[in-house]
UniProtKB/TrEMBL annotation:
Residues 12-71 form the V-ATPase proteolipid subunit C-like domain. The keyword RNA-binding does not apply. This is ATP synthase subunit c. CDD domains: ATP-synt_Fo_c. Key component of the F(0) channel; it plays a direct role in translocation across the membrane. A homomeric c-ring of between 10-14 subunits forms the central stalk rotor element with the F(1) delta and epsilon subunits. F(1)F(0) ATP synthase produces ATP from ADP in the presence of a proton or sodium gradient. F-type ATPases consist of two structural domains, F(1) containing the extramembraneous catalytic core and F(0) containing the membrane proton channel, linked together by a central stalk and a peripheral stalk. During catalysis, ATP synthesis in the catalytic domain of F(1) is coupled via a rotary mechanism of the central stalk subunits to proton translocation. It comes from the Bacteria. SUPFAM superfamilies: F1F0 ATP synthase subunit C. It is found in: Cell membrane; Membrane. InterPro entries: ATP_synth_F0_csu (IPR000454), ATP_synth_F0_csu_DDCD_BS (IPR020537), ATP_synth_F0_csu_sf (IPR038662), ATPase_proteolipid_c-like_dom (IPR002379), F/V-ATP_Csub_sf (IPR035921). It comes from Aeromicrobium alkaliterrae. It is a multi-pass membrane protein.
Length: 71
């Protein structure tokens, strides 16, 4: 055995692309916690915006996942 690698580079790209949404989700919820700590009365509005941001960030990963399997 000479140490052959099986597979393709799409999965490596997918792994690297997963870093972006992971960082984005962390920043979104860090901003949520900070905003609620500063203004507790705005919790409902901030939570809605955080969930919307979370969905949009994860959507990019799901699209990348689909493209990785298609290509």
């Amino acid at each position: 055995m000479t140490g052959e690698i099986f597979g393709n580079l799409n999965m490596i790209g997918l792994g690297l692309a997963a870093i972006g949404p992971g960082i984005a989700v962390g920043l979104i919820f860090a901003a949520l916690v900070s905003g609620v700590a500063r203004q507790p009365e705005a919790q409902g509005t901030l939570r809605q915006l955080a969930i919307l941001g979370f969905v949009l960030a994860e959507q990019f990963f799901i699209i990348g996942l689909a493209l990785a399997f298609v290509l």
